Amino acid sequence: MSLEIIDATKRFGDFTAVDRLNLEVAEGEMHGFLGANGAGKTTTFRMILGLLDPTEGKVGWKGGPINYSNSPEIGYLPEERGLYPKMKVEEQLVYLAQLRGMNAQDAKHEATRWLERFEVPHYAAKKVEELSKGNQQKIQLVASLLHKPSLLVLDEPFSGLDPVNVEMLKAAILDFQKEGATIIFSSHRMDHVEELCDKMSILDKGKVVLDGSIKEVKRSFGKKNVRIRMDQDIESLSSVPGVEHFKKVPGGALFQVADEAVAERLLAEAMKFGMLRHFSIEEPSLEEIFIAKVGKAYA
Asked: Is there a domain that residue 73 lies in?
């Protein structure tokens, strides 16, 4: 394993921010963290980075502790952005890369390459404060991966970006993973976690309440969604035994059912109403699973 967290606990006085967290992330894997504000995601990231020491337990990277000797192997995009507003973009990128052990010439070459990829090469000589929030976010991401870290930690990397720029950054992160990087990130968009991650963890009040591959998480949840479209009003089907939730959606209805056997009963009952225009069994969304496990919507 590249990253290993064993019984990591972090307390601040009487408050336990992270409670006996265990996690293994293999080399080249992308792992997503979901959790409401205050769930312990950022504290976990700071322990991984060596910015905070666990009160109990340990965090290891490639079989050893994380310290100043291997910190250049790590890239970090914090949720609270940390660029120098008065400093020019290229100068800042080169300076930050040099702090991670890169020489100035290589850093300048990589900065130019990434600025071109993110379609902002004309901002190289501009001060960060002159850029929009979305373009500042691009520069912050470039700063986190410019020195080619083998572990990349991204805390809300897509915050404040429009859909076009989200897709641009997602493609860059996936390409970086293909080059062998291990990536950990949190996002308020569960569809991003579902699309990008090999595995995921849901945190609540400092504890992991669910983790595994996306397929494992959905399979362990057990429930299925059934989408039905008919011309008739089919709300009465919500009383079929095993239907746990019903809601109307554009062009039809969505039923959450306990298992596929209930879906079969639902199909048989629906066909009694007349022409069935659409019937499908779908996996539950991560948002549904999150609400079921945590008891509230993601915020």
From this structure: yes
User: Is residue 137 within 8 Å of 161, Cβ to Cβ?
Assistant: yes
User: Within this chain, do residues 161 and 274 fall inside the same structural domain, yes or no?
Assistant: no
20 and 97 within one domain: yes
Among 61, 64, 57, 67, CA closest to 19: 57
Report the run of H or E that residue 90 belongs to, with start and end.
Answer: helix 89-99
From the list 55, 39, 35, 37, the residue with the least C-alpha distance to 47 is 55
Q: Is 272 found in the same domain as 185?
A: no
Strands 182-186 and 30-34: parallel
Same domain assignment for residues 33 and 112: yes
Domain hosting residue 14, numbered range: 3-212
| Contact between residue 289 and residue 32 where contact means Cβ atoms under 8 Å apart | no
Give the pLDDT confidence of 6-61 residue by residue, as tens digits: 999 999 999 999 999 999 999 999 999 988 888 899 999 999 998 999 999 999 99
Residue listed under structure tokens 């199909």 = 267
Overall pTM > 0.85: no
CA-CA distance, 95 to 169, in Å (whole number)? 22
Length of the chain: 299
- For residues 154 and 192, give the distance between their C-alpha atoms in angstroms, rounded to a whole number: 13
Residue 283 has which token pair?
């996996």
| Residue 298 placed within a domain | no
